[in-house]
Write a structure and sequence with these properties.
The structure is a homodimer. Chain A has a single domain, classed as Arc Repressor Mutant, subunit A (Orthogonal Bundle), CATH 1.10.10.10. With about 100 residues, chain A is an alpha+beta fold. In chain A, helix 4 crosses helix 5. The longest helix of chain A is centred in the C-terminal third of the chain and has 14 residues. The first copy, chain A, contains 6 helices and 3 strands. Chain A has a 3-stranded antiparallel beta sheet. Chain A starts with a helix and ends with a helix. In chain A, a hairpin with a 2-residue loop joins strand 2 and strand 3. Chains A and B meet through helix 1, helix 2 and helix 6 of A and helix 1, helix 2 and helix 6 of B. Chain A binds a DNA duplex (30 and 30 nucleotides) through helix 4 and helix 5.
Amino acid sequence: MNSDAILEINKALSNTTRLEILKWLKDPEANFPPHLELGHFDFGVCGQNIQDKSGLSQPTISHYLSVMHKAGLLIPTRHGKWTYFKRNEKIIAEYIKTLNKEL
Amino acid sequence: MNSDAILEINKALSNTTRLEILKWLKDPEANFPPHLELGHFDFGVCGQNIQDKSGLSQPTISHYLSVMHKAGLLIPTRHGKWTYFKRNEKIIAEYIKTLNKEL
DNA sequence: ATTATATATAACAAAATTTTAATGTAAGCA
DNA sequence: TGCTTACATTAAAATTTTGTTATATATAAT
């Protein structure tokens, strides 16, 4: 992972809410109500539920989720009118591994 | 290490120059000219040399070094008219360990 | 077809960050 | 003492980030 990618992730994670979101998504069962339609968290958690938990406005969270997606931290999946967001564990692991080596 | 400390370090490392400085200080011999007065890098590298390498103005680097110090990443040592800056390896290791566990 | 829901985008205001020029301070040297 | 060097602080401008309201879009429900 190159320096630009590291820097973009650092920026994404230099905001309280975005850092919280990444942690919440580690354990959707513990942090979110169940998805009535889907019945599982295989694609992560829908934007609506993330927004509810954050207390911020819908456009703010939509933007934050987009920032985290662009940084590679989240994988969005559109399903009907919902977009689910899942952690990108591979990128997160690579990020920490690179920090370990280069920081 | 608590979330506020993590967040402050993430902010400190979300700037290209500051991230570079932390990396440069990993190997002063490779990245900086020798200290004529001191003859060693036991206290790290003086602000002047860091500024020269960065290409940014003196006040900018002074401010950046202060930000990194406040985040716990650097240890400053005043010695005559020079201030030397050394990596705080303990905090850096703790930071990465916490990311490993909580991110 | 109309209405409601989930999300995205646009436009914008407030706050924080980035960076410089100017100035202050403290130590060393002529 | 006066000059120079290293660094810190202040003031200020330009840019970025944060977050909102308003609006658009797409899907689902009635």
